[in-house]
Design a protein that fits this description.
Radius of gyration: 19 Å
Strand content: over 45%
Largest sheet: 4 strands, antiparallel
Number of helices: 0
Distance between the termini: 38 Å
Number of strands: 34
Oligomer: single chain
Helix content: under 10%
Length: about 375
């Protein structure tokens, strides 16, 4: 488990936080043993249709991005590549010239990644040609977001910056105070419908105009509480999930909550502690808590529909809805497919044995997964 205390320091990414047995980041302690896998008789057929080596991610969570019918992904060593999602063939592969710490964002012909020491790099989606570079004030650990011709990023000093996607010139920035103790990771960002939705430390979610940076609303996902600074850490964790008028977010040592994306009105909130973001679909909101329990909530009311405890301490990724299943990866390289309606295990798929840190990505009828050791896979369901 990693924290930032009084100053910004490069430590392990937040995804490693799942599965820790204690909140004390300064004491050595064993991790809880992951729950053994129960026997499963598959009631959902899943298979790998292609697989390609894209390079190791180290401790970073490199989630691919999908734009204009192409996948874009990166690795810790600094490579960025474009991949045909129908067959896994690499269209182009370049060396960005920088060690990468997060990525990828893609939209409107531009692909953006974040490099070491605050470097933000943009490339042409068609051929990988470099377009521009921007130097952020401190390191950017979560993938930038891009939409409406604007790239939005948040650096570890809690500065939110918007850049012109075509030129890299700065449009606006917003500086927020940084708590003395916070999780060592920047919560994710979504840009949609002219707004940038940004998760913040101390349990806050803010909506800003993508054009001007003017705040539209700010809401509390979780209130810091407890007798010590460590107990009061309640940062928004992972990337919020947007569907229709609902945006849902989670907080470590806090809650899961859904709010009205237009005006910030809180729809519902439930107690939850997690290091990863939620998953949503038309009916459900899914969350994997810090102990490895997967839960489903009714999207409209927040009522708890089911809770599966069979994957305890397996370090689950953020969940994603896929057909009749909700899917999570774990730190041992397994994909688990559970019933959206009941939470029963439908199928299991082994990858390469390395951690699946980032949430799987839906690309048409396929599920795209990137492992820590660099295997990118497309999974289909029959």
């Amino acid at each position: 488990m990693s924290f930032i205390l009084n100053r910004i320091v490069p430590l392990a990414v937040l995804a490693l936080l799942a599965g820790c047995s204690s909140l004390n980041p300064f004491a050595s302690r064993p991790k809880n043993a992951p729950a053994p896998l129960a026997n499963v008789t598959p009631s959902m057929a899943v298979r790998v249709i292609w697989s390609v080596n894209v390079g190791k991610a180290g401790n970073q969570g490199f989630r691919p991005a999908l734009s204009d019918g192409r996948l874009f992904t990166a690795n810790e060593g600094g490579e960025l590549m474009s991949i045909d999602p129908s067959n896994g063939k690499i269209v182009w592969r370049i060396d960005t010239g920088s060690r990468l710490v997060s990525g990828v964002a893609a939209d409107g012909g531009t692909v953006v990644v974040a490099g070491a020491e605050g470097a933000v790099l943009a490339f042409d989606a068609a051929n990988g040609q470099k377009r521009w570079k921007f130097d952020a004030s401190t390191e950017v650990l979560s993938a930038p977001a891009i939409g409406n011709g604007t790239v939005v990023l948040r650096s570890l000093d809690n500065r939110i910056v918007a850049l012109d996607a075509g030129t890299g010139s700065r449009r606006w920035y917003l500086q927020r105070s940084t708590p003395s103790l916070s999780l060592q990771a920047a919560p994710g960002i979504i840009v949609a419908d002219g707004l940038a939705f940004v998760g913040l430390p101390a349990g806050r979610l803010i909506a800003l105009s993508a054009l001007s940076g003017a705040p539209r609303w700010e809401v509390t996902i979780a209130e810091p509480r407890g007798a010590t600074e460590l107990e009061r850490v309640s940062d928004v964790s992972g990337t919020p999930a947007l569907i229709g008028r609902d945006i849902c977010a989670t907080a470590y040592q806090g809650r899961i909550a859904c709010v009205d994306a237009g005006n910030g009105t809180l729809r519902w909130a439930r107690e939850l502690s997690t290091a990863v973001g939620p998953g949503v679909d038309q009916r459900y909101v899914f969350a994997a808590d810090e102990k490895g329990n997967l839960q489903a909530f009714a999207r409209d009311t927040g009522s708890n529909l089911w809770r599966n405890t069979s994957l305890a301490w397996r370090g689950l990724s953020a969940p994603v809805s896929f057909g009749r299943a909700v899917v999570v990866g774990d730190r041992l390289g397994y994909l688990h497919f559970l019933s959206r309606e009941e939470g029963a295990l439908l199928a299991r798929l082994s990858t390469d044995g390395s951690a699946i840190i980032s949430a799987p990505l839906i690309a048409g009828s396929h599920l795209i997964v990137q492992t820590q050791d660099g295997r990118l896979l497309a999974v289909a369901s029959d």
